[in-house]
């Protein structure tokens, strides 16, 4: 009996090795894999007939499919998940990438939001995938600039920039079309209200009243949003990277893959699962069905990042299910470590505090929200 159990175990191990080898070859080439092809790709000790027998068994178990009776096999989502789970702890990366991670670690700036956005762009370049991440709210952040842009006759866009690099926008209504000179003078008024310097003296009474109203309206909106911090900020980038993959050449397929990005609640749920797990997670194909309606040919990999060893957010990549998981897992591990070190150092160096969503609870009133002098408000 013991001998039979050992033989069965050895057979299962060889079958698993064949499956992993097939998936590895498929991820690199994107082509169906035949028995002779796999034999020449590192399985010279097995006969083609033996490999075909393994293929048949794996097909019955739902790991492989054969599109044509005389063609090779391709792995199913089930096989890709097994492969990803096999290499989820992979930390090896191309030595050429280490300089990039070092640069991410050496970045030193109070503009934490801007750093995270730049880091997300870097990760998108490294992986060739779309990237999204959630971030906590950073206190001690102040509005440093407001831009005013006319959208149409009755609407203008206010763009608020904070000292940490956060960009916040508000659309406000106006009663009539504003001239370019009026817009410039309103911006000058905003600057004076923020800094206390350079009060514009060329404004007429009507313009000043309008500027006062717009400034107070935008500030109140900002304070309410800042105080009632219910959901983390979500940063998204790298959508165009998906155009390089054959799976997303059709507009409907691309739109389906990116449908996750249209649902902030689903993105937050996915990232929260990663943070709660406190480690790398992945979703491939049908395992994404609770987050998005169209999950064909799509995979998401996510990993948390930390400040002082405490998980504060997660970062995810979205791409085709035929991605090279081993190398991307390694990239994600090093990326998370790099930004965690940088954020930890900058938070302590610049004496920044952070907080997670308070689900509607007002912020501590002793903490400064922004440079705002109510004595100058109307």
Explained architecture:
This protein is α+β, with helices and mostly antiparallel strands and 378 residues long. 44% of the residues lie in helices and 18% in strands. The chain is built from eleven helices and twelve strands. The protein has helices at residues 2-29, 35-40, 48-60, 77-86, 98-106, 112-127, 180-195, 205-227, 251-257, 264-277, 325-349; strands spanning 64-66, 73-75, 130-135, 137-138, 143-150, 155-162, 167-173, 233-237, 281-284, 298-307, 310-320, 354-355. The chain is elongated, with a radius of gyration of 27 Å. Residues 1-8 and 359-378 have low confidence and may be disordered.
Helix percent band: 40-55%
Mean pLDDT across the residues is: 87
The secondary-structure class comes to alpha+beta
Q: Give the percentage of residues in beta strands.
A: 15-25%
Main pleated-sheet profile: 5 strands, antiparallel
Q: In whole angstroms, how far apart are the ends? A: 90 Å
Q: What's the total number of strands?
A: 12
DSSP helical segment count: 11
In terms of per-residue confidence, which ranges show pLDDT below 50 for 5 or more consecutive residues? 1-8, 359-378
- Give the overall shape: elongated
Strand order of the largest sheet: 8-3-11-10-9
SSE order: HHHEEHHHEEEEEHHEHHEEEHE
Computed Rg:
27 Å
């Amino acid at each position: 009996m013991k001998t039979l159990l050992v033989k069965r175990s050895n057979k299962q191990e060889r079958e698993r090795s064949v499956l992993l080898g097939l998936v590895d070859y498929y991820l690199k080439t994107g082509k169906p894999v035949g028995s002779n092809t796999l034999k020449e790709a590192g399985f010279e000790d097995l006969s083609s007939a033996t490999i075909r027998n393994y293929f048949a068994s794996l097909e019955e178990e739902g790991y492989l499919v054969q599109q044509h009776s005389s063609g090779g096999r391709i792995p199913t989502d089930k096989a890709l998940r097994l492969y990803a789970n096999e290499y989820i702890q992979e930390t090896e990366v191309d030595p050429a990438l280490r300089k990039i991670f070092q640069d991410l670690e050496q970045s030193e700036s109070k503009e934490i939001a801007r750093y995270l956005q730049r880091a997300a762009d870097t990760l998108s370049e490294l992986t060739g995938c779309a990237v999204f991440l959630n971030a906590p709210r950073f206190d001690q952040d102040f509005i440093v600039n407001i831009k005013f842009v006319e959208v149409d006759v009755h609407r203008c866009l206010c763009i608020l920039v904070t000292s940490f690099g956060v960009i916040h926008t508000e659309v406000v209504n106006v009663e009539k079309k504003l001239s370019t000179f009026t817009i410039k003078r309103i911006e000058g008024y905003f600057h004076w209200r923020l800094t206390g310097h350079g009060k514009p003296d060329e404004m007429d009474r009507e313009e000043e009243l309008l500027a006062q109203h717009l400034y107070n309206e935008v500030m109140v909106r900002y304070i309410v949003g800042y105080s009632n911090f219910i959901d983390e900020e979500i940063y998204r980038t790298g959508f165009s990277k998906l155009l390089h993959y054959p799976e997303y050449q059709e507009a409907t397929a691309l739109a389906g893959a990116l449908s996750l990005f249209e649902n902030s609640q689903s993105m937050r749920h996915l990232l929260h699962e990663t943070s709660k797990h406190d480690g790398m997670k992945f979703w491939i194909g049908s395992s994404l069905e609770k987050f998005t309606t169209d999950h064909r040919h799509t995979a998401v990999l996510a990993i948390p990042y930390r400040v002082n060893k405490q998980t504060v957010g997660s970062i995810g990549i979205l791409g085709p299910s035929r991605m090279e998981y081993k190398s991307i897992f390694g990239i994600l591990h090093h990326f998370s470590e790099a930004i965690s070190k940088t954020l930890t150092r900058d938070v302590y160096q610049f004496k920044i505090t952070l907080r997670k969503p308070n689900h509607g609870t007002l912020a501590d009133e002793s903490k400064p929200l922004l440079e705002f002098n109510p004595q100058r408000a109307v």
